[in-house]
Amino acid sequence: MTVTGLTAHDVMQHGLMLDSGSSRIAIELRFERPAFVYGHRLKACSIGAFTYFNAAGTSSAYRCNIGRYAQIGESSILGPPEHPMDWFSSHPFTFTRPKYMPNMYRFEDFARLAPEAQDGPSYADSMPIETTIGHEAYVGVGSFIKRGVRIGHGAVVGARSAVTRDVPDYAIVVGSPARIVRMRFAEPLVERFLKLQWWLYDLAPHKNKADFSKPEAALAYFEERLAEGSLARLSPATYSIRPGATGYDLDTLPAPLF
Ligand SMILES: CC(C)(COP(=O)(O)OP(=O)(O)OC[C@H]1O[C@@H](n2cnc3c(N)ncnc32)[C@H](O)[C@@H]1OP(=O)(O)O)[C@@H](O)C(=O)NCCC(=O)NCCS
C-alpha cells in the first residue's frame, strides 16, 4: 500500500532521517531502517540499515547500492554520470534522452537540439550504471567514486580521494587516483570477517558481551554464537520512498535489502 504526502518528519517515523524539503530524493530511495540521509542528494539509490551520510555538507549519490553500516563523509560524490570522451561532443545534447535530463528538456532551446525519447538506446544505456558501496565501507570526506566502481565491504576511502577502480574488501585506499596503502586486517582475519558477514545479523542482544575494540576476540565471539545458532538475522522494516505531488510517497517493501 502506498502512503502519500509525507513530510520529512513523517518519514522519520519509518526510520529515515531526512532534512525537511522533498527535493533531495530523486526518482526513488529504497532503505532499511534506520538510515541517516539528512539533506544529501540521492538519486535512485538503495541503502542498508545503519548507513549514514555525515550530517554536515552536501554529498550526492547517483544510482548507488549502498550496504549496511556504511559511513559517507561530507561533500562526497558517489557514482555521477559519465559523458562520452570520444564523441563529437561530450555535452549531453549529443547523447542524452528526456528520461535522464528532464529539466534540460523543459527549455525548448535544448529540446529542439537534443535527441528525442524515441531515438533508440542512448550512450547512457550502454554504460555501467550502478555503483556499489559495500557493507561497513567508510568513505572519507570529499571523496569522488567513479560510476560503476565497487567499494568492498569494510573498505576505507581516505579523505579527498578519487576512486576510479574497484577497492577490495577491507583495503584502505588514499589519494587521486586512489591506491591501496594497506589492509585493515591481516588476510586470515579478513577471510573470517567475510565468512561471518556480521552485518546480516542482529548484534543488539550482544552489545555488552562483545568487545568491539578487540576485533579478533569479537569475531570469535560472533563465530561461536553463529555456530550455536544464537545469532538472529537482522530483518529491518524496509521501504521505498519517492517525491510525490505533495510530499514523499512511501511503500513498504516485502523483504530487507540483504
Ligand atoms: C585514510 C585514513 C583513514 C588513514 O588513516 P590511518 O590508517 O591512520 O593511516 P595513516 O595516517 O597512517 O596514513 C597512511 C599513509 O597514507 C597517507 N594518507 C592518509 N590519509 C590520506 C588521504 N586522505 N589522502 C592522501 N594520503 C593519505 C598518509 O600520509 C600516510 O602516508 P605515508 O605512509 O607516506 O606517511 C585517514 O587518513 C583519513 O583520510 N580519514 C578520513 C576522515 C574522514 O573523512 N572522516 C569523516 C567521517 S564521516
Molecular structure report:
This protein is an alpha/beta fold and 258 residues long. Helix content is 14%, strand content 28%. A hairpin with a 4-residue loop joins β19 and β20 (248-252). α4 runs parallel beside α5 (215-227). 31% of the residues are buried. The structure holds coenzyme A. Coenzyme A (COA) binds next to β17.
Summarize the structure.
This protein is an alpha/beta fold and 258 residues long. The protein has helices at 8-12, 102-105, 108-111, 187-196, 215-227, and strands at 2-6, 16-18, 25-32, 35-38, 41-47, 52-53, 60-62, 64-66, 71-72, 77-78, 131-133, 138-139, 144-145, 150-151, 156-157, 162-163, 171-174, 179-183, 238-243, 248-252. It has 3 domains: 1-80 and 130-184 and 238-258, Hexapeptide repeat proteins (UDP N-Acetylglucosamine Acyltransferase, domain 1, 3 Solenoid); 83-126, no CATH class; 186-235, no CATH class.
Ordered list of secondary-structure elements with their pairings:
Elements: E1 2-6, H1 8-12, E2 16-18, E3 25-32, E4 35-38, E5 41-47, E6 52-53, E7 60-62, E8 64-66, E9 71-72, E10 77-78, H2 102-105, H3 108-111, E11 131-133, E12 138-139, E13 144-145, E14 150-151, E15 156-157, E16 162-163, E17 171-174, E18 179-183, H4 187-196, H5 215-227, E19 238-243, E20 248-252
Parallel strand pairs: 2-4, 3-5, 5-7, 5-8, 6-9, 7-10, 8-11, 9-12, 10-13, 11-14, 12-15, 13-16, 15-17
Antiparallel strand pairs: 1-20, 3-19, 17-18, 19-20
Helix pairs in contact: 4-5
Bound molecules: coenzyme A.
